[in-house]
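This part of the workshop introduces the protein records we will be handling. The question running through the whole workshop is how a given chain folds. To make this concrete, we reproduce a full record directly below:
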Amino acid sequence: MLQIGDEAVYFSAVFLLVMLATRSAIWATVLTAFLYTFMVMFRFPPVPADRAARVLRPRAPSPGSVPVVAHRGGSHDAPENTLAAIREASRNGATGVELDLSFTADGVPVLMHDDTVDRSTNGSGPISKLQFVQLRRLNAAAHHRMKDRFSGEKVPTLQEAVEECIRHQLIIFFDVKGQPDMAVSVLHGMFKKFPVLYNSSIVSSFEPKVIYKMRQTDPYVVTALTHRPWRLSRFGDGTPRSLSTWSQLWTSVLDVLLDWAHHHVLWKLCGISAILVQKDFISWDYVQYWAERGVEVVGWTVNTAVEKEYYQNLLKISYMTDSLLEDCDPHY
């Protein structure tokens, strides 16, 4: 939770900014009081720390090590977001898997990272335009480096993936990209159908509205916000998203505001238990900042032995990786 000192600083800053903008102590007081009341009335308390720890700090692969999560099931070791990836992750010693939730045209919840099926299958087009029966015909290993070994692997349904993870006793990081209403409804159904998920899974998203709605629908679910600074203005490799100077400047301003909101408002409003942050922005001080607020930091995507040693021995926090076996290309 926010420390009392934090709240005093934040709301004092709001008061001063409004005061400077309106030159009215009355308006500054009214707006500050409104924001404070809103936060108190509509924020969700995080799930109990001991239960969150079962998800975020479960058994590690070996004594003294940190939990390791196979990103998209471990997309370097097996075709991403498939049952084969889940099985390989378990075999290779992962503590959990991160899986991406998507929906077909007929509303079937499946695993898929991109908006289209082009990159990861032998099909083409938006997944939202494909019926499940059409998606099921595609080869999810078509473009993987070990496509011969995993030939014929199918895109699984969400339930198939959940059952496979439960079978292998893996922690699940459900990553929600969009369609918050549908995603929350489906995930809530999964938690009710498989109650073990309350102690073995976490729902995460870049979109705060997804997490807020998940907590609103089921306050017992462990949740996390996913964050990468400068996400609106720059791609993962640092290149600008726009060639327009004004557009780039505007999105940079939005990035600063979004970053501030994540660290000072949204985490408390949603009552998160963890924050998933792109690896290049994590330091010991950053981990401590969140630890003081009862929030775990999980890094993504950590793909080299040097980086893994840094997370294992110095930061001592969980991380996501595309491979549990060897170094692989960086992921943004």
Notes: Residues 48-321 form a domain with the TIM Barrel fold (CATH 3.20.20.190). Residues 224 and 272 are 5 Å apart (CA to CA). The chain has a mean pLDDT of 91. The chain has two domains: 1-42, 48-321.
